[in-house]
Design brief:
By secondary structure, the chain is mainly beta. About 10% of the residues lie in helices and about 30% in strands. It contains 3 helices and 12 strands; from the N terminus they run βααβαββββββββββ.
């Protein structure tokens, strides 16, 4: 959820008041007070995991909409109270597991074979934070890089949308699909079939594709192989 994406609304529609209480019972080690200041390399998914939260519940609590981008220096709240950022960070350290595999902007592949780009990345345009790739109905859509399915649902403006989390700093987005073939929480490999292309919430069959580093979109054409 990116939405017009990434826009958040890659996504759209998960919206919640900042006064909404966090869901309960997620984890015995769940941080329920204080704030965390986003650092370089953080994503909402990695912050939520370290603090015992479901990332979508944390997004709702902080009124962060899909595709759940966060910025360095941004404060993420865990609940009411006067606990400091330092306290929340210390708690996160105690509950952290093994470090995530390092991911770089190398080794990515095209999500559609024999791709023809019909819309390019335009950083000044809130609706063009990725590229648009021509497709035929039902054409296979593949994971551009191995990762975990952080989001897989229908988002107004982006049709059936998938967001893959790659390590702690990178994510990829796949929109306008007619059918999703993976579920949230599932781990996928690079090149694995994840969806069927469609034309939901757009004027022609296509795939909307984004790559984000540290919560910020980068031009996919600068990352993908020169030839497909």
């Amino acid at each position: 959820m990116f939405f017009r994406l990434i826009l958040i609304a890659v996504l759209l529609s998960i919206s919640a008041c900042s006064s909404q209480s966090p869901s309960t019972g997620t984890s015995a080690n769940k941080v329920v007070s204080g704030v965390y200041k986003v650092k370089r390399g953080d994503t909402l998914y990695s912050i939520a995991t370290r603090h015992g939260w479901d990332f979508k519940a944390l997004a709702r609590y902080n009124n962060i909409k899909p595709p759940y981008a966060v910025n360095v220096g941004q404060n993420i709240r865990f609940g009411p109270g006067s606990a400091t950022t330092k306290t929340a960070t210390r708690t996160a350290t105690k509950t952290s597991t093994a470090p995530a595999t390092k991911v770089t902007l190398r080794g990515w592949d095209w999500p559609i074979k024999n791709a023809v780009v019909i819309g390019r990345y335009a950083p000044a345009d809130k609706l063009s934070k990725g590229i648009r790739i021509a497709a035929t109905p039902g054409q296979p859509v593949f994971a551009s890089l191995g990762g975990k399915v952080a989001f897989a649902t229908n988002i107004r403006g982006y049709g059936n949308l998938i967001i893959l989390q790659h390590g702690t700093s990178h994510a990829s987005v796949y929109g306008h699909n007619r059918r999703l073939l993976v579920k949230e929480g599932q781990t996928v490999s690079k090149g694995e079939l994840i969806a069927e292309a469609g034309d939901l919430d757009t004027d022609r069959t296509q795939l909307y594709f984004e790559i984000r580093q540290n919560g910020k979109p980068v031009d996919p054409l600068s990352v993908l192989p020169a030839a497909n």
